[in-house]
Write a structure and sequence with these properties.
It is a single chain. By secondary structure, the chain is of the alpha/beta class. The chain is built from twelve helices and 21 strands.
């Protein structure tokens, strides 16, 4: 007789949790999943208030540029205008469809879904809606949540979670932060028609990215209309008849309709009983795990943003599959999966986009020693007629000792789409000589990566 109610109990219905629950159930395990937000939040941050709606709004923002650029190609007509209510309604409809897809996938696999908050009692027990449920293993996949620092007027600001469904379109928007989320929303709402001011207390946005990418992107978004102010921060926010009055530490002030704080995310662990259950935690409460995603309690595992390692949806999916393979064996004919965190490609959906894989130049020099850098900056063919002043940046970083390409970076249209393909080659160990022997597709921006011959620095 099995002493546990379930073989696996998953806390959190985001990307990692849903993937783990579904795949474990398909292997014959008895699986339950608890999602505090109910069916309407299945898919987690990415589906509901992150990647998916953000990319949809990014598409929407690009249309204003496209309409303007079309005149250079002979298109004429009345100016278009944004219907904010229509965009919100259509986004909501698509997200609801995706929630349904996730729900059906779980049901089809035989997962018991509990629309309730779950907390740990011990290594084999959770409490859900006042009921105690036992499980042989527990997986914590509760993701992260936006963090707003304690400032005067904190209650008047919003986070990224609220930006997709603001009641009124913000004609004047202040974005506080310099990470990828802040930069994306600044670009998106600038494209949609807001007058956007972005503040960042540091010396340059996108800390952790290649320095050339950071400076190039900052110049491009400023050129597009974002009022980017570096070395600046908010002192207080007060409500006035004309909007939100924001006092800055420099002594300046600004009045806007909406203040978005995108100053980082923290693990979503409040009220989960982790300390009482003996689960070790790190900075900001992040769940500490070993190389197999096992916590300090052997029967409890954790994946995704709640571990505060690499906070990307595809990473959470990969980690979930490692846990499933460990606990229930790999799929028929497959070997157990593992995760490697080098050469993870990522994109930032600013305008223009960023695509990157591998190391930035400063990191590469520190890790590999001698490297050679190749770089190209140009106006894309499209903009020879569009009238746009947008430029594209491409950069390769090559390890001298092996000739391996260890960093590839792009700022320009469709950067994410382009970099994804190169990420496969780089994961396989592609060298600069292999890049040089590859024939480019002409005329494309992507061909620049295989035609750069002259180094700009060693």
């Amino acid at each position: 007789m099995n002493p546990f109610d379930f073989d696996l109990f998953v806390i959190g219905g985001g990307s990692g949790g849903v993937r783990a629950a579904r795949m474990a159930a398909q292997r014959g395990a008895r699986v339950a999943l608890a999602e505090a937000g109910g069916t309407a939040m299945l898919g987690g941050t990415c589906v509901n208030v992150g990647c998916i709606p953000k990319k949809l709004y990014s598409y929407a923002a690009h249309y204003s540029e496209a309409f303007e650029e079309a005149h250079g190609f002979g298109w004429e007509g009345a100016p278009m205008r944004l219907n904010w209510a229509t965009l919100k309604a259509n986004r909501k409809k698509e997200i609801s469809r995706l929630n349904g897809v996730y729900s059906n996938l779980l049901a089809g696999a035989g997962v018991t879904v509990l629309n309730a908050f779950a907390a740990l009692v011990d290594g084999h027990t959770v409490q859900v809606d006042g009921k105690t449920i036992s499980a042989k293993n527990i997986l914590i996949a509760t993701g992260g949540t936006p963090h707003v620092p304690s400032i005067e007027g904190r209650e008047l600001v919003v986070t990224s979670n609220a930006m997709f469904d603001l009641e009124a379109f913000p004609k004047r928007l202040l974005v506080v932060g310099g990470g990828y989320i802040a930069c994306e929303f600044a670009s998106i709402f600038n494209g949609l028609g807001s007058q956007v001011t972005q503040l960042y207390r540091g010396e340059q946005v996108l800390r952790g990215f290649d320095d050339d990418v950071r400076h190039f992107l900052a110049a491009e978004v400023a050129k597009a209309g974002v009022d980017l102010r570096l070395g600046e921060d908010v002192a207080s926010v007060t409500k006035t008849a004309d909007g939100l009055h924001v006092a800055l530490f420099s002594g300046a002030s600004i009045t806007v309709d909406t203040v978005l704080y995108a100053t980082g995310r923290v693990p979503n662990i409040q009220g989960m009983g982790l300390h009482a259950a003996g689960v070790a935690q790190g900075k900001d409460g992040a769940v500490l795990v070993d190389g197999n995603y096992q916590t300090s309690v052997p029967s409890v595992y954790s994946v995704g943003d709640v571990t505060a390692r690499v906070q990307l949806t595809p990473v959470a999916l990969g980690e979930a599959m490692v846990v499933v393979d460990q606990l229930f064996g790999p799929a028929a004919g497959k070997v157990p999966r593992s995760m490697a965190y080098d050469f993870i490609p990522t994109a930032v959906f600013t305008h223009p986009n960023i695509g990157t894989v591998g190391w930035g130049e400063a990191e590469a020099r520190q890790k590999f020693g001698a490297v050679t850098v190749y770089k190209s900056e140009f106006k894309a063919l499209k903009h020879t007629l569009s009238g746009s002043t947008e430029r594209t940046l491409m950069k390769l970083i090559v390890q001298d000792a092996t000739d391996r390409v260890v960093g590839l970076h792009m700022v320009g249209p469709d950067a994410g789409e382009i970099v994804q393909g190169f990420a496969v080659a780089m994961k396989a160990g592609a060298t600069k000589a292999m890049f040089d022997r590859t024939i480019g597709i002409h005329p494309t921006a992507a061909e620049e990566f295989v035609t750069m011959r002259e180094p700009v620095g060693r």
